[in-house]
Here is the input.
Amino acid sequence: MFWRKQKAAIERFHPLHRALILDRACAVSLRRDDWEPVIQSLARHGAEVRRRRWRLPKRVPGVLVPMLRILAADMPPDGVLSVAADMRGSGVPEKKGPEQHVPTRPPISAMRQWYVVDPWLRMRAELRDGSVVELDVTDRIRNRRYRKNARGKVKLKSKSKTVQIVRVTRRLAKDAVVRPPAAPPPRWIRVRVKRGARMVIRANGKFPGPLEDQAMIDRILHVSTEPFRWTPPGTAARRAR
Amino acid sequence: MDAAGHGGEEGPVTVTRCHVTTGFFVLGRCGQAAAASCARCVRPVCAAHAGPGGLCPECAAAQGYGTHDPHEPSWTAGYRRHYYQSSSHAYADATWYASFDEYDRGAFDPGDDYAHGGDWGPDDDTGFVDS
Here is the structure.
């Protein structure tokens, strides 16, 4: 029997870890401290599994684990952290949109275009200041396939362009102290505020991609910064446990 | 009011609390009973936060004891400083970095501008270029 040691190692992993290996996706809500066994199981992956087919998606150790650590740092022990990770990639048929014909001019004789929308990470965390943060990361890929030749031969070319969209929503605790930030956010971040007993601050960031690992984390965190600039330091943590 | 933050009328008990910064966006203090003082910045630290050589997490990271592996629980404390510095540059907002504790800023480069409130001059890198 082939790969028996690695199969046995996968059986010993945390069930969520197994789901990320075999299904490349998982969706679950757990309390803060229940994520620690998942992270420790993921940490053992590289040492115990080497087969390419069972390799973890790069975004798991590169983005998912750091974001789990960051959000868990702001949560009380009984806070719930929800994650819906879809690491199947952009080639999955259900993520593909309808194809359209695009007008062309010579030497391109025909062009088809379609978009792929890949919401690969969604997280929701209940923070210790009573606010709730929701984070969505989506890849929007424009694919173009076209026929290009001036001499009548059939030559197919293709291009793709990725735009990554990060949306962070923070719903503040009831009657939280709010102070609009003195400086505006960078131009690539858009902010919308919904006032009320529980103020909602939503920041959207759109940038060319695909970014991976630390560059991606930095972008996510830069978008996440804006909702947190609306609460003065110190006042937000009054319910800290 | 004593070092523990309790009123003086409640009794003579004075417990020194751990001053290590916790959290990432929502910063707070650890608040557990301190077991030692950091050998470098002398702030009180609890047993859970005392690192190698008796250093607090920020001083340990500044000395090169920090980890770059996010699977390690201590990774967040080391990455937090990088985040506050880079986001302050991205937002051109000195007050955002100033919300980060002076201990945490100063541990890495005591004596620089950031260690004393955080500011940068017109010649420093703020993302703008001369045309």
